[in-house]
Amino acid sequence: MVLRYSSAAQFSNQTLRRVFPSADLVLIAVVVLEILCLLVVISSLFGRYLGKRMEKLLVAAHKIEQQDLEFTAEKTKIAEIDRVLDAFDHMKLALKESLARQWQDDKMRQDQLAALAHDLKTPLTIIRGNTELLLDLPLSDEQKECADYIETSAMQMQNYVQTLIEVTKSWESTQLNLQKVDVSCLLQETKNQISGLCAVNNIRLYWNCSQYPAVVTADHDFLIRALMNVLSNAVEHTPQGGEITMEVSQREKMLSFVITDTGKGFSAEALKHGTEQFFMEDESRNSKSHYGIGLYVAASVAQKHGGRLILENSQATGGAKVTLEIPV
């Protein structure tokens, strides 16, 4: 006779026995669930640990992207990540040396161009002076025409030289010589300079400058240069017989110089990019003799004074409206 029997773990509680007939399966399920929970916890802790180490990689990459090369990469005690940080360190040093060489080369070229432009001003001044003397002498029509051509070309070359000087300057690093500036004297000096240019081009100049503070803290030379760049740009794009209006007013703590003309106005693209360096457009107001420098310089000067340059089209005249604002 053979006896067979089977044994299985069961719950002593009748309710649990009905719900879970086999206690072994429940035990296995609980063990598996505990293992899965343990894996999730371990993975989460390892992810946080690794994330903190990887953060140092991201910091090093961000500093290199921003060209902040004066940093030391911290080690993470993870060999693979430390090897990547060492590679970043070598890349940082190579980039630093490359940028230093590039800066020196650019500085040397700028100095050479600035020196050349400055040296060109002397012979051009002599040419213009002698041409003016020739024009005072009795000349035949042909001789006068040739002298006029020489004078016009010399003036154009002087504009080119001035543009070259502006280009070679690093406006981002230029320091202002701030002092108390007599606004009346500044406006009179600006008016004297632009009046002759308007007269030559048969343009009427309206000067509406009555409400302004007696003095303002600014760089006298740079502020005049900015205003003259805007006014010269207006003259170049105003047809003969047109008008240019200069208005000065003080609103709250800002002194505004508003130049309006009766030219064609700014194109849509020029309104967006007109103050960028070297911006030129065939149908825009940017003159070929200025190569997109004038409004850029004016905007840089305004920004360095804590102000701004605003480009608009005047609804009254249909021409351009340029506002230069500086704080009082």
Which key features would you list for this structure?
8 helices, single chain, five-stranded mixed sheet, alpha+beta
3D architecture notes:
Strands 2-4-5-7-6 form a five-stranded mixed sheet. A two-stranded antiparallel ribbon has the order 1-3. With 328 residues, the protein is α+β, with helices and mostly antiparallel strands. The longest helix is centred in the first third of the chain and has 57 residues, at 79-135. Mean pLDDT is 82; it is low at 283-291. The termini are far apart. It contains eight helices and seven strands, in the order H-H-H-H-E-H-E-E-H-E-E-H-H-E-E. The protein has helices spanning 14-19, 23-65, 79-135, 141-168, 183-200, 220-236, 268-273, 294-304; strands spanning 179-182, 204-209, 215-218, 243-251, 254-261, 308-313, 320-327. Among the domains are: 116-168; 179-327, 2-Layer Sandwich (Heat Shock Protein 90). The protein is elongated. Strand 6 and strand 7 (320-327) form a beta hairpin.
Give Rg in angstroms: 37 Å
CATH level-4 homologous superfamily of the domain at 179-327: Histidine kinase-like ATPase, C-terminal domain
> What name is given to the CATH topology of the domain at 179-327?
Heat Shock Protein 90
The ordered string of helix (H) and strand (E) elements is: HHHHEHEEHEEHHEE
What is the rounded distance between the termini?
A: 117 Å
- Helix/sheet category: alpha+beta
Widest beta sheet: strand line-up: 2-4-5-7-6
Number of E-state strands: 7
What kind of sheet is the major sheet? 5 strands, mixed
- Name of the CATH class of the domain at 179-327: Alpha Beta
What is the average of the pLDDT values? 82
Task: Estimate the strand proportion.
Answer: 5-15%
- Anisotropy-based shape: elongated
Helix content: 55-70%
Please state the second-level CATH architecture of the domain at 179-327.
Answer: 2-Layer Sandwich
Q: In terms of per-residue confidence, which ranges show pLDDT below 50 for 5 or more consecutive residues?
A: 283-291
Number of helices: 8
